[in-house]
Amino acid sequence: MYDLGIIGGMGSQATVEIYKRIIEMTNAKKDDEHMKIIILNNSKIPDRTGNIFGQGESPVIELNKSIDDIRKIGAKNIIMACNTAHHYVEQLDFSGLNFISIISETLKYLNKSYKEKEIVILGTTGLIKTNVYLNNIYSKNLNLEYLNIDKQNELLEIIYQIKGGINPLKLLDKFSNLLEDKNKVYILGCTELSFFKNLIPDLILVDAMDCLIKEAIIQSGYKLQEAFK
Fold first, then answer.
1. Distance between CA 161 and CA 171 in Å, rounded?
2. Average pLDDT score over residue span 171-190
3. Domains 2-100+211-228 and 103-208 agree in fold
4. Bridge partners (DSSP) listed for residue 187
5. Which CATH class name applies to 2-100+211-228?
6. Euclidean distance between the first and the last CA atom of the chain, given in angstroms as a whole number
7. Is 211 among the residues known to form the active site?
């Protein structure tokens, strides 16, 4: 039995980053102290934002196939390496698996740490259109908002450029120009945006990927490195 199954491929670089961070954050001194992980990098899952806007197939069939593959191999917990994919959660069959939601874990953290702040959700336009964060039960006591439409369009372009293989460092200035208010908290609510986590030190950036990974480590029965507690 594996400790954790990861549905990846949304995108593939972000999936690699999630695995890298799991290794970094787990309090393990040798190989056999790390968790057993299934990484199912299903790059054939249709584009979530495209489908939300009526362009392209639904990702539900491929997502359920991926879940079923992980279930057959055998895992206790499962995560999806994509914020926007959580729009489809009600159509997915996680029976027999403990599903850990990147949306819920990020909002729980924000409730503990930034309840009094204005919080801007950064993610795909599909995530914004479907209000994935706002519709979550843990959002009700938070002051959540979005970028204006022009900035949102620029942000989506950045996300797809990273998916297309452009180094995030080359997009840093373009990204940071979208975030003007240093008094606000910004959720990195797309796994491609997680690459910017430590690159803008004068802003409060909450990385949804980190929130998910920490909880996945804990629920899988492992401990966090002191630096990540």
1. 9
2. 96
3. yes
4. 121, 206
5. alpha beta
6. 27
7. no
